[in-house]
Design goal:
With 332 residues, this protein is mainly α. It is built from 12 helices and 5 strands. Helices cover 32% and strands 4% of the residues. The strands form 2 sheets. Strands 2-1-3 form a 3-stranded antiparallel β-sheet, with no helix packed on it. Strands 4-5 form a two-stranded antiparallel ribbon.
């Protein structure tokens, strides 16, 4: 299934047009049914930059014991999420939260489950120097890259300058910006293919936007309001979510509304991997969650029938973009 797309760069041109000089053009595709997003990166996102960023994304020497890469925890078949409860870092160290999917990142306003980071460029740096993830100092990263047999030449060819922290980050970000999911059956439906969704999925869409109250938070092209909510996972939260960042008691147990694209393949669910199936997630919301003083009032008993729960599940499955999960250009 193919949709018309646009190229984003210093100007917006149709992808069918003859590309301008390689030093200026970009390989970022913007689906026509997505909002226009302006990219103001310091370097043009060229094919060579993306290729370098992909190589770095799957590069183990960026971890202190050379055992893992970004791609170790962000796997394409799971929409660049992880199917493990908590992804192990160097030396098998564990953090506290489930690895999130990486998709349509240029349309996100904040990152991480508590919104502590507002820049995609900082997202690529944070795992590097986190002790339970890659545990790599920036100076050690630069030293390893400069001593590598290939990277000094590649960086010079792409950036016309030596390896630096800045251009390493922009290479990683350039690749991550290309991870765009936009060809699910749902996308086909909203762009005019009335047969793309089954009758059950259409009923599920109606429930999603109505009785099930999903769309009160899951909105937009990423199905996220970019805000933070306590959904009643616990009466007492071991991980207080956004409160750890804001220190505001009103933020206790609040986490960012997740992107629902490809949600059928991104189990386990919730920040702590509490649920291992979408059926469990739906049942949690159907029951109205646990009591917590900061629980969002929209999380309430829904009284969905078994057929309604099945229809809602089938709609969520319509958000799966198989071309995104198998696109060879994203593979190492």
């Amino acid at each position: 299934m193919h949709f018309g797309v646009k190229l984003l760069g210093l100007s917006i041109v149709l992808w069918q047009c003859t590309p301008i000089d390689n030093t200026e053009r970009t390989v970022l595709l913007q689906p026509e049914h997505f909002p226009v997003v302006e990219i103001n990166d310091a370097y043009p996102i060229t094919p060579d930059l993306v290729d370098l960023g992909k190589r770095l994304f799957f590069e183990n020497i960026l971890s202190s014991d050379s055992s893992i890469s970004c791609g170790t925890c962000h796997k394409q078949e799971f929409a660049f999420a992880d199917n493990r409860n908590i992804s192990p870092g160097v030396h098998g160290n564990l953090g506290t939260r489930n690895a999130q999917a990486l998709q349509n990142l240029s349309w996100a306003k904040t990152f991480f489950r508590d919104g502590t980071i507002k820049s995609l460029h900082l997202v690529s740096l944070a795992p590097l120097d986190t002790d339970f993830e890659m545990n790599m100092t920036h100076l050690e990263m630069l030293d390893r890259l400069n001593k590598h047999e290939a990277y000094p030449k590649l960086f010079q060819e792409v950036f016309n300058e030596p390896i630096s922290e800045k251009n390493t980050v922009y290479a990683l970000v350039g690749f991550m910006r290309t991870l765009i999911s936009h060809q699910s059956p749902y996308d086909a439906f909203v762009t005019g293919d009335s047969s793309a969704l089954s009758d059950s999925q259409l009923r599920g869409l109606s429930l999603f936007n109505g009785k099930a109250l999903c769309s009160t938070c899951h909105v937009g092209i990423n199905f996220s309001d970019e805000s933070y909510h306590n959904i009643g996972l616990h009466e007492m939260y071991p991980d207080n979510g956004r409160q750890r960042f804001t220190f505001d008691p009103n933020d206790a147990g609040k986490f960012k509304t997740p992107n629902l694209r490809n949600v059928a393949v991104t189990a386990p669910y919730m920040h702590n991997s509490q649920f291992h199936s979408l059926e469990e997630v739906i049942e949690h919301y159907n029951k109205g969650g646990e009591n917590h003083p900061m629980k969002d009032p929209r999380v309430q008993s829904l009284n969905l029938s078994q057929n309604e729960k099945s229809d809602l599940l089938n709609f969520l499955k319509s958000l799966t973009d198989s071309s995104f999960l198998t696109n060879p250009s994203f593979a190492p």
